[in-house]
């Protein structure tokens, strides 16, 4: 009787402990749950007004009409500056190609009459504020240069998808808007593994995607 009673007590304790663990996990999940991305920030219209800004590491082609000796391809240095013939240091990082072209025209005007400059960017790197980062249980966590019309699915293709340990539906998107940081839940399992395309959202420069590890 005592042995049997002890066995039943032990089994009951295990069951009780399992129930408590599940309930605790469920409560923790609810506490950590963030709201979904708002409807007005889900489609690609959220990206209107985006223009690429030159970053350190970019390769820039400078063409000065009628002056081949002033034209050429130069790198943007780690300090954000570049050097061209006749001009030693020009701030390039943080400017659009058009803005840089107008600045170069002002600099070249000291040496030539009415210069016309065109700037073409190759080998895009992207400023940190214009990258999208993926950390956690992605196959290849990375900082990816943002490009217009980029979606969550595009980003997951870039990083090779989810690992087998990923809790995709508990992923979090960190977004900076109007000077504030906001966190939203995204359902990567539903998107990638179940093909629920409604979970595919438009991204913004500076977004951070956090993919946690599954405990079960």
Automatic annotation (TrEMBL):
Its main location: membrane. Keywords: Cell outer membrane, Ion transport, Lipoprotein, Membrane, Palmitate, Polysaccharide transport, Porin, Signal, Sugar transport, Transmembrane, Transmembrane beta strand, Transport. Gene3D superfamilies: Outer membrane lipoprotein wza domain like, wza like domain. One of its GO terms (biological process) is monoatomic ion transport. GO terms for molecular function: polysaccharide transmembrane transporter activity; porin activity. Residues 130-211 form the SLBB domain. It comes from the Bacteria. The lineage of its organism: Bacteria, Pseudomonadati, Pseudomonadota, Gammaproteobacteria, Chromatiales. This is Polysaccharide export protein. PROSITE patterns: PROKAR_LIPOPROTEIN. It is found in: Cell outer membrane. It is a multi-pass membrane protein. GO terms for cellular component: cell outer membrane; pore complex. Residues 48-121 form the Polysaccharide export protein N-terminal domain. Belongs to the BexD/CtrA/VexA family. Pfam families: Poly_export, SLBB_2. PANTHER family: POLYSACCHARIDE EXPORT PROTEIN GFCE-RELATED (PTHR33619:SF3).
